[in-house]
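Weekly structure sync, notes
Attendees: PL (lead), two postdocs, one rotation student
Agenda item 3: pending single-chain targets
PL asked that the sequence for the first pending target be pasted directly into the notes so everyone works from the same version. It is reproduced below exactly as submitted, 712 residues in total.
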Amino acid sequence: MTAMALNVSNLEFKLLQILIEKDQYQSVNSIAEQLNFSRRSTYYYMKSVSEKLIKNKIDPPRNVKGQGYYLSKQSKEQLNIIFSTDNYKNVYKKQEKKFSAKERQVITIILMFGLSSYVTISKLAGIFNVTRNTIVNDFSVIKDNLLEYDFSVIGTSIGHHFTGNEFAIRNYFQDHLTEFLTGLNSLYKMDNSSALLDFKNFSELIVMIKDWMHKVEFQSSSSFSDDAIRSMENFYALVLLRILAKHTLPSHSLNKQKEGYEELQARKEFEMAGDFLAHIGIDTEEYKEEVFYLESLLLSSQLKEISPTNNSDIKKQVQKSTKQIINNFKHLAEANFKNEKQLKEELYVHMLSTYYRVKFNHQYKDSAVLSIKENYPEIYTYTSISIDPFEKLTSQPLNDNEIGLIAIYFGAHLLNQESRYLEILLVCSSGLGTSQLLKNQLATIFPGCILRGPVTKRDYDNFSVINSDVVISTIPLKEKEKQVIVVNPVMNEAEVSQLRKQFISDDLINVNGIDKQFTALMDVIADNTNIINVDALENGIKEVLSRSLNPRIPLKGGYQPLLSELLNEETIQFSESEGLNWEKAIRLAATPLKNNGNIADSYIEAMIENVKKNGPYINIGDQIALAHARPEHGVKELGMAVLKLNKPIDLIDHNHPIQLIFVLAAIDDQSHLKALSELANILNDKSKLQLLIDAKDSSDIQQLILEGEDQV
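Predicted structure, written out during the meeting:
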């Protein structure tokens, strides 16, 4: 007999220890209190323990009515022998989990959000096996982190819970959803999870939400990404626990404007949301705001594709702004897309979801997407300047995370290269932009490979056979006779290097073309050094020699000046608008750069010709123009200038009034990016933009720029 044969969990072990150590009867209430269980959970674990003991021919705990449970002397002796073995001690020690302060705080927030009865200091101390003071400190940190939000945490005789704006509570949880989903997974794995949260009801709600979303897909002829479904089912299941406990939204929580609700109620998704809530037993007339809320979540969820039918006014407006964003990006970055039609289709699908996220305060907040800002700063900067048409449509600015998501689509297409090599199946649970960026990054890392997909996890699970040589996925998958390699959606250089090494060590990279170089290098090294680890050296050399392309757009390096270094007293001008049209305004704005030798006359003519040819694309924001042309058209040295007019003038037509005309003279693709990024941050902030427009002299503009640089 061994402890492994018992296969008891941590909590079952603790329950048995109570019965072994106590000579008197133990009531259900006493055991529940010692283990921080509910009575129901105590009965569950007692039943489980009894079955395992009987299976191992040990008398189970006996229950004397009115007294409680006890173990016979023989059972205690048998269990003490089993539990004293090193084998069992090692297993038990391995099962114990130490939670970090961050993990404890995340799980505590989940329990409060899910209205668990276990959010008391004493019970949490027992769950995490820490002192009461540690839990008190955890609550102090949680409260400090919530100071900027419209709700707080209070402690009562029955435990801690959220109080305040219910919409703010839900938004906070949604903003940190990725972090909380990880915490939720930890909760699932805890032995007493069923006691901590009503997981039975929670799991049933998840199944109902998933089935409903698939029904919505069928009825709307649209398709959600795997990530969208996973996020929705987990988040909204917890929201439903709150709704069923009467923590509901008051009227007009989503939008103060009547028009916004009329728009929602006119859509078929409103009826779908109402039917779902009514099926659960929620009065949709009394809690109509909850119908609107569910509908807004549905519309905000990331789509893979949408039905071409029912081309509403909103869809037409989003389509139009999407085309404008792409055109702005093309002109700013001087870029061409090999498959612009595909880009328009993919970005439109994304922007439609983005529209509803912005309109109903569900903007994406996961900071993971900001890796695009770090790894591809030029793409991110051009994107942030290009999105003005969409921000005008929604009347709200996009946050950095939403801009990052849009930048991913441009990055995916800019990095696109046709190639042939081994066959890779790409599985991605995110939206189209992230999938395409990863696909094209892989094509850049491994030129010549055949890339299949991207497909969703649902698609992968339905495949009976995988014909590709290897599977690369952004989420863990069950292998189907082919190796699965899990990567991040946007890989940094270290991760790319590690992926190359894995391909080499697994013989997935064909290194025949570098055999001669490899052999020669190995010969030289062997002749001059003592090789300690031959395999590691071989893989390292092959990895270096296989780097035909860098996955990032190459940086030219060199110094990138701040905006304050380019815009100064010499390059900032003020002028009356009388007698000026847009052509004269551009010439005047560019004069300081011409006088300083930054540009030639040909560059000014090229900027004007660009507008005549391509339209008012340089109107990048409210009353803002950014005139520029290609470096080869007459740029001698990097420079920037701005002209502030006392009144707006028309850029080609009255639909594009401009009052601030910036001129950018870039000498390459990189050196101006820091200054341009600073400018984008100012233009994306309505209050700062208004200060620019209201500026009376150059010192006002310089002060505004310097204040922004001080905050970086």
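Discussion points:
- The mean pLDDT is 83.
- The chain has 34 helices and 15 strands.
Action: rotation student to compare against the earlier draft before next sync.
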